[in-house]
Design a protein that fits this description.
It contains one helix and seven strands, in the order E-E-E-E-E-E-E-H. It has a seven-stranded antiparallel sheet, with helices on one face. Strand 6 and strand 7 form a beta hairpin. The longest helix has 7 residues. It is mostly beta strands. The chain has one domain.
Length: 109
């Protein structure tokens, strides 16, 4: 794995937040080859809220974009789940809802 991925954490009485931004080449990780973007996971307004947008490149070179909703704009487009809109190029493919435990684990530091 090569690249530059920054991590920011926040722990307050209101809840926890973790943010990742940057890009990483995922050499040897099947089926993904690269990650780029910014994502926030917090539990301030609801048990789990994911915001941001990421681009994932598969091993054949195709980029897939996932938009989880705007970052730092409370209650504007982001819902209290781990779902985002998946697209490839200009074509919307549909909802992308990974297992919420992946994101919930990010808040368990």
């Amino acid at each position: 794995m090569t690249g530059n991925l920054g991590r920011y954490t926040e722990d307050t009485a209101a809840g926890r937040k973790v943010s990742y931004s940057g890009s990483v080449n995922l050499i040897g990780y099947d089926p993904l080859a690269a990650f780029s973007g910014s994502i926030n996971v917090d539990n301030y307004e609801c048990p789990l809220k994911v915001t941001g947008a990421v681009a994932l490149r598969d091993k054949v070179g195709a980029w897939h974009d996932i938009d989880f909703g705007p970052i730092d704009v409370p209650n504007e487009g982001a819902s209290c789940d781990a779902c985002g809109d998946l697209s490839m190029g200009d074509e919307l493919i549909g909802p992308f809802c990974p297992d919420e435990t992946v994101f919930a684990g990010m808040l368990a530091w």
